[in-house]
Give the backbone structure.
Amino acid sequence: MIVSYQELADARKKKRKRHFTLEQELARLWEKMRRHKIAKEDRAKLVTEALRKMKGKIPEIVGSHISSRVLQTCVKHCSQAERDAVFEELRPHFLTLAFSAYAVHLVKKMLDNASKKQLAGFISTLRGHVAPLLRHMVGSIVVEHAYELANAAQKQELLSELYSTELQLFKDLVSLKESRLSDVMSKLGLQKGSVLRHMTSVIQPILEKGIVDHSILHRVLMEYFSIADKSSVTDIIQQLSSPLIVRMIGTRDGAKIGILCVKYGNAKERKKIIKGLKGHIDKTAYHQYGCMVLVCILSVVDDTKLITKVIIRELQSILKELVLDKNGRRLLLQLLHPNSSRYFSPDDLASLNLSIPSLSLKDQSEASFLTETSKVSLGDKESKEDIEVAVDEVNKDKTSADDSDLAESGKKDPFVRRQELLIKSGLADSLLDICIESVGELIRSNFGKEVLYEVATGGSDGIMHPVLDDKINSLHNAVASLAALPKSEDSQEEHVLENFHSSRTIRKLILDCPNFASTLWEKALKGKSELWVHGHSCKVISAFLESPDPTVLKLVKKELQPLIDIGILKNPKPIEQANQ
């Protein structure tokens, strides 16, 4: 009798796998239930049958690749009662399953569909095991998923056992009000040295294994930076100054860590970070948080040749997309108009101004100042901890005091650095070409109009003048040519003087750039102003009357005065007064 190879293989698997036959049956059911074109009732029957076959054996078979996939589909499509039954059967085994490469996907699916009570129960089972799980490539995924789904109190519960042994044993010692590690230490009187030793023992093995993708670790690192001494912080920055940083900057706290590594890393470490970003510049530039790390690099790193080679060259190949992108444009705006609250939110500016107390010269000088004054003004009852808290308060107040105050990083003059990155690299030249070629699209777009405005005005501090004056004038003429086009009701695109975004951009350019105002008037509006005194375009005409430049006012006086006299236009600043 001839036995086929497949039959021999199946016979071996039956001996090796206890539930091999069951898995084969489940696989056949799964092929039917996962089809797209299947009636809801038929799928429900198949799911119920599969769950009936697995009942009582789920913890044993869930580690298998096939069974895990079947269970994920069942959990997705089963009723709530059936889902609860699966959850209860798995509850005692969650910790074991968290370390399984295949079962982890089912655990995540169960958490996604868990009720608030079930999620709270799962998080309580993690108590005392968070650190070991974070050190495991698979287990860390489960902790991160639970952390993302948790509420503020549950997140604090997961974090607290990474801070201190005491908090690991007594979770009820801290309330939600003490969310910052410094507040927790101050309330419980924890010793700084003890906390640092515990956190170091947790963080180091994780970093050595390269498990740096998770937001819970990023939060822990931010808290560690806030209390660690100089040598400890320097060690961590040295470890992270590598391609590892690319995997961290996708979260809010991860981007903050990236910014701190750039600001406080030495020249060698900065070079490693920039080289680690090579090939990832485009994705990072479009990312909500990652783009701020690139903004920081452009703002503080002195090696402009390396930045030009690795970052600017890659940006030039996607320049138009960057201009039109909400996050991508920030890199260009930072070079054109650094740290502007018009383009960066308070949170963005605060992240650029982040500091590490043990490494910050400003913080250290304030601390020494407070210490000296305390010797005179404070009594013996004032403790060392109170002084540290006072210093911390001063730092918090100073953080948002000055938008333009970046770290003490970088010896090169900021204007010179901007010139080298913007002008000498050829980026500004390419940017002007894009603006001239796509002037209609950019000026009508929500984000592109801001870059076009900065380019048309020559950037802050006149950084693009006089080198690129000819091209800037060409851009002015391109905008004026669009404005000179006749109004047409048949056109699918709104006229630039009537479009919401473009009309406001042109108005702002008239007020801030007299050269543009003169070009626009002579080329597009002279003799036609009466056609544009209604709707959005009225704001453009009125801008000529509000211009702070007397030459512009003199240019438009003769034509616009009659419109003011008959009440069509309002003059916020009488022309006679302006002439005086």
Q: What stands out?
A: The longest helix spans residues 192-209. The chain has a mean pLDDT of 86.
